[in-house]
Amino acid sequence: MTDYSQIPVFGPEMPALAPAPDSTVHTETRAWRSMAKAVSWRAVGSLDTLLLSYLMISYIGPYFGLEQSKGEALQVASYIAITEVVTKILLYYFHERFWVWLDWGTETVGGRRRETYRLTMTKTISFRTIATLDTIALAWFFTGNVATALSIGGLEVVTKLTLYFFHERLWARLPFGIVH
């Protein structure tokens, strides 16, 4: 006879919107953890935006009527990347605090808070949507060309989804800023 008492109730097959497992261990995520995550992500994200913007303005922009020298393309790409440092840190911080407030998709294992892959994927998609719209708006503002802005935002979706997911998984392993 099978002993069903050892089978976890909340395993990998748990529905996406099911409540998190009940735990007797309380954890708290500090606001400065969210700020540290925002700053570390922005370093990665801004370098990606700078490179993608430069490439799109230099090589794709001319197909959409945006003719700029390599120096001008680098200058515009720098404006986009530098401006988004401020906009994206704010967006990231408030996005992170929203998910902490929501308190969904975490569990306590061995007395430690653990973020589920389901939460990481949900946060990745929701932040990428917000951030891509911000990048498109900034690129449009600085280039004056909506097609180039859309090409920058479109390519950024691919690179940033991957980078953000791994950034979140790294932070999910770090106890920094979590009080048990």
Quick overview of this protein structure:
α1 (31-60) packs antiparallel against α2 (70-102), α2 packs antiparallel against α3 (117-143) and α3 runs antiparallel to α4 (146-173).
Textual characterization of the structure:
- This protein has 180 residues and is mainly alpha-helical.
- The radius of gyration is 20 Å and the shape is elongated.
- The strands form two sheets. A two-stranded antiparallel sheet has the order 1-4. A two-stranded antiparallel ribbon has the order 2-3.
- About 3% of the residues have low confidence.
- Helices cover 66% and strands 7% of the residues.
Structural class: mainly alpha
Q: What is the radius of gyration?
A: 20 Å
Strand content: 5-15%
Kindly report the average pLDDT value. 86
Helix count equals 4
Give the topology, please.
Elements lengths: L27 E2 L1 H30 L9 H33 L3 E4 L2 E4 L1 H27 L2 H28 L4 E2 L1
Antiparallel strand pairs: 1-4, 2-3
Helix pairs in contact: 1-2, 1-4, 2-3, 3-4
Question: What descriptive keywords fit this protein?
Answer:
180 residues, mainly alpha, two-stranded antiparallel sheet, 4 helices, 4 strands, elongated
